[in-house]
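Bench notes, bay 3.
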Amino acid sequence: MPDDAAAARAAAEEESAFSHSPVAPDVTAAYGDHPDQVIDFHAPRPGPDSTAPGALAPLVVVLHGGAWRARYDRRHLGPFADYLARRGFAVANVEYRRGDDGSAGAPAGRWPDTFDDVAAALDALPALVGEALPQADPRRTVLTGHSAGGHLALWAAARHVLPPDAPWRTDGPADLRGVVALAPIADFQVAEKLEVCAHASLQLLGGPDTFATRRPYADPVLLVPTGIATTLVQGRADLVVPEAVAESYADAAAKAGEMVGLTLLADVGHFPLIDPAADACAVVAEEIAQLAW
């Protein structure tokens, strides 16, 4: 159990991350018929904080977290998306179907809908970007996500190594510059041992009866190597998704012959990674820039 000081700091970090005013996207486009099958686009706003100038901006695809539960949607990442846009990136903030309702005990995720949506969004993105964000260069795409969204980012980049009978499998790797996963739920077995997000990964896969059979289709730690440049950014003081989860993924990747970057931030918890007011968010933007430019 965390001590009182650690718990208070974590609460303050969460409050700060959710304190920003909502930021409306420049364009919202649908990739399907369900209300949650939409993507918010933020046009790049080059200025003093821009990482680099240029006629076309790298595209950052963002997948939000929230334990795959319905009460957390893409809007809480609007300020983070705007922060990246102000640094010169074009940003696509993806929504997807999550737990069935917004109550505190709602099941996490929807099988297979959550995975169907992320795959469909990524497949539809090139055409949608061409219409919604002509300032973007899809040849320089970086995929990022936070917490449960970090899981989905790693999973989406690994579709070409899914089991052959997986409906989301692709013939080859995605055309990505890389993945930056932020405090990702990257190893379901470790996450379950640590009771991450009240056993959200167990719920995502349908419960104890289907957890083992569905893991090979969904758990990033079982989908390495991918051959795609990958960096994990993790707060060492994270009480929501402890660093042991990210470290387990990085270790598994190394054993599979793939080096995954792991940036550990001292005295940083779960939410500063997506909080524009936090120094950790600048570290995240730099990690993205290292892959994108």
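Next record in the batch:
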Amino acid sequence: MQDLEEIKIIVTGFGGQGIIMAGRIIGKAASLVDGNESTMVQSYGPESRGGACNAQIIISANPIHYPYVDQADILICMSQGGYEKYIEQLKAQGTLIADEDLVNPADGDFDAYHVPATRMAEALGQKMMANIIMIGFLTAVIPAVSVNAARETIRHSVPRGTEELNLKAFAKGYDHGLAVLKGREKKAAGQTGAIA
């Protein structure tokens, strides 16, 4: 069981990107494998494929009494429209994780990560796995769910026969997240060294 306080996450994009599946995987990993409480609420636009959609996930070590996210700790954006609709719900000093080829965020009072998720998925030959790459990246940079929980949940959530490719996509996102964190640490250490 992950030892954590409540984390509120919004995953947004357009229909057909696997936004709802990503939300389900994060929520199931947190509750069924890590042993925390979790809720997920999903919302679709008027069109199922191509319309705006989002998944709101709350993860907590304690019972959750209200399942909707008013102010998110983490906003994962896979479309510009989703970013524009939900950026106001990202709390001050929260974390934005955006697909760098699909979202052009403005500067704001948040920590921003830019991930080439769709490009990485295309390199694997399966554009539809960008959502799994995002889960991998999230798992590396924010301790919302454990690596083991994410992997196990992906294995049991994706269509039969695609498990290994999805786990490869997760690993790509996770490794990219670790590399970004390492780069930030080196940059911070370099700045500290220059000041001292």
